[in-house]
């Protein structure tokens, strides 16, 4: 892991606590008194962070304070929103921006990840969790739909049959079921969750950032764009000095390993 950078004034006390390193950023949802419910201030902070990571791409680890990822959108704010607010896509647009960041996003989930909290987790590339996880979309019970990503993103993760069942029933699932259906890839004890997220980031950080960015971009491309999008990305990387450096090091290392001792 690279060296930490000082936190800008206000980050530690705001709704999103941000810790910066050379190769990654850890962003902690930080409204523990509200179980990290996602309010407008949180959304604004996510937009500011996304702008930073779009300009200077780094891995993003998303987590939550107080043993909870995010209990959902802030219902007190949500109750007052009207049709024009829905059309603005307040949460949806922020989560799309998270999803489209150049470098990978890892969601480290503990406790509740419900409603908008679940949808923020779905926007990540990789999700890991503790055994305490409860994740789901109870929006229909509140008279609305899951419109910040679940209605299109969840089926891409777990398949249409399971996604529609979860969305229509509104039930929350536990960590074991989430892993079973592929919603999360790993389970870790509470005190090992963030180290596990950093271990994944460490493995990614050893790779070529340009190749990582290209892999994420190509993976997200529509099926109709393949294989052309793959070949164009590969063409650019084939001309990269980093490709030559890494492959030369590989060949030299292999030659050294094969020398008789």
Question: Can you describe this structure?
Answer:
With 261 residues, this protein is an alpha/beta fold. Helix content is 48%, strand content 15%. It has helices at 40-55, 75-80, 83-88, 90-99, 116-122, 150-158, 160-169, 175-180, 193-205, 209-220, 228-238, 241-258, and strands at residues 4-5, 16-21, 24-29, 59-64, 105-109, 112-114, 126-129, 134-136, 172-174, 186-187. It has a 7-stranded mixed sheet, with helices on both faces. A 3-stranded mixed sheet has the order 6-8-9. A hairpin with a 2-residue loop joins strand 2 and strand 3 (24-29). Helix 1 (40-55) packs parallel to helix 4. The radius of gyration is 20 Å and the shape is globular. It starts with a strand and ends with a helix. 36% of the residues are buried. Residues 3-10 have low confidence and may be disordered.
């Amino acid at each position: 892991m690279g060296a930490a950078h000082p936190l800008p004034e206000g980050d530690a006390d705001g709704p999103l606590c941000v810790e910066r390193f050379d190769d990654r950023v850890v962003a902690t949802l930080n409204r523990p008194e509200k179980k990290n419910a996602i309010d407008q201030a949180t959304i604004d902070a996510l937009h500011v962070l996304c702008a930073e990571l779009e300009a200077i791409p780094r891995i993003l680890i998303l987590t939550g304070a107080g043993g909870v990822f995010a209990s959902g959108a802030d219902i007190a704010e949500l109750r007052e929103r009207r049709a024009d607010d829905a059309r603005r896509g307040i949460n949806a647009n922020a989560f799309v921006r998270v999803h489209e960041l150049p470098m990978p996003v890892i969601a480290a989930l503990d406790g509740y990840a419900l409603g908008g909290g679940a949808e923020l987790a779905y926007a990540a590339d990789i999700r890991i969790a503790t055994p305490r996880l409860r994740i789901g979309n109870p929006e229909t019970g509140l008279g609305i739909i899951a419109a910040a990503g679940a209605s299109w993103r969840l089926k891409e993760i777990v398949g249409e049959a399971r996604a529609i069942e979860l969305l229509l029933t509104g039930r929350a699932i536990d960590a074991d079921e989430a892993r079973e259906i592929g919603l999360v890839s790993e389970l870790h004890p509470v005190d090992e969750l963030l180290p596990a997220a950093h271990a994944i980031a460490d493995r990614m950080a050893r790779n070529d950032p340009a190749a990582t960015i290209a892999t994420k971009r190509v993976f997200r491309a529509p099926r109709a764009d393949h294989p052309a999008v793959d070949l164009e990305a590969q063409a650019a990387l084939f001309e990269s000095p980093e490709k030559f450096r890494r492959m030369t090091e590989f060949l030299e290392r292999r030659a050294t390993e094969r020398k008789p001792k």
